[in-house]
Amino acid sequence: MKASREPKRGGARALLLALALVPAACAPSPEEQARRSIDSGQAVAEIQTFFDARAQGLPLGQCAAVLTGVSPIQISDRTARLDTVRALVEVGLLEEVAGAPSGEVRLAPTRKAAHWFRVRTRNPSLPSSIELCYARRRITRAWLVGEDGKTLNFAYRLVDAPAWTGDPRMRAAFPFLAPALSQELVATGIAPFRDGRWFLDLADEGVTLPGQDEGFYACPDGRERPDPGCGG
């Protein structure tokens, strides 16, 4: 009787082992998981959620440095007369405040425009950085690139831009605004897929336009007729 049971027990063990191996054999590879994430729209949804969260409660999430890029904004009298600085003041984004030494001007966001600005302190030993937020990113599509087939590119458009972004003074002073607000933009090699998820924390928060000096600087590059104060 014992001899007759052994084959049955051995067969049962073999069957259990085979069943245990089935899920592992059928589990999709990381490359397949990444592809499914793209095809299902999950990747686009994850990217959108990521950037919406990075907006830190602001109504807009696409931001760029303003003038000196540090807070408080302090510039020379000569710089304050440039058309770039005048545009920021004339459309009601910045205003002059007290406290600047002789020969200089100190600027701060106006009360009505304060919710479009973001002030951050990355290093306590350095001045805070100040950025002006001018649109929200709407993710339009995503696709895989790279030899491993697990790296994410995505495209987006900038939407919900405030009215001041279309002001002729702002468009003339800051040439990056027109293409930024009218084109589909592409972020390349932005995130790998590992352990079942996209590592979007590696994404650059300040995705910029290729070939453009994206920022509300006093002397932005690429201007056809820069002010004399910018060295042009």
TrEMBL record:
UniProt keyword terms in alphabetical order: Signal
Signal sequence interval, chain numbering: 1-27
Keyword Signal applies: yes
UniProt name for this protein: Lipoprotein
Lineage: Bacteria, Pseudomonadati, Pseudomonadota, Alphaproteobacteria, Caulobacterales
